[in-house]
Amino acid sequence: MLRWLRGLRAAPEIPEAAWQATLAAYPFLAARPAQDVARLRGLSARFLQDKEFNGALGFEITDAVALAIAAQAVLPVLHLPGGLAWYDDFVGIVVVPSEVSTRRVAVDEAGVVHEYDEAIIGEAREHGPVMLSWPHVQEGGNAEAAGPILNVVIHEFAHKIDMRDGLVDGCPPLPAGFAGTRTAREARAAWMAAMAPAYDAFREQAVVAERFGGEPPWLDGYAASSMAEFFAVACEAYFVDRARFGREMGTLAPLFDAFFRPGR
What we know:
two-stranded antiparallel sheet, about 10% strand
């Protein structure tokens, strides 16, 4: 599994045939400007050097699997200052052959503890590994499919970006001077001033669609579960189809552009 990359001081270029196969499988990567695609290729090689891929539940890691995940994982940090340093708090990536069931514990507003099993297709743990279901990774390349965009790799790595400040709240660590602000507190306030009403509007649309048969929102309904999930789901749509994201989520597009710095 690309073991020849690990241990080398400078990452060699990813083989052309492997790279072209990845771009063909995930057209939203190939559709980016040529300079972005070239930078994506270089950072993907470095990502493969830095991370350790492991298959679980009988799944076998191949070069194609590792490269597909790397190319999508790198996309959100392509123009962020620090680049791959956003992912330096973990090494392991676990890939499974299908969704898995995990035990959850939740406490409701009355203080009652609820335990339940949840089927998940991906999970990101703070300072820990990322888990991904391979069939759902493969589905992430189809931006033309009916229904909301689903990209589990971008989703989980967006969580990793969100977690960098120790909080999982839909607000990533923001640089000094973000959006013309002067302090970290002002930057966070500016971020939430855009995110909170967009989240509230999305939740309302999702409820109307579910209960009263209204028009379903473009983003996946899972985004209504928390602000952190709203951010991760929005990132899926932003990176897979930026043009439609601008039309559907007009108040968030400038915010995401200011943070993720496309074209820089």
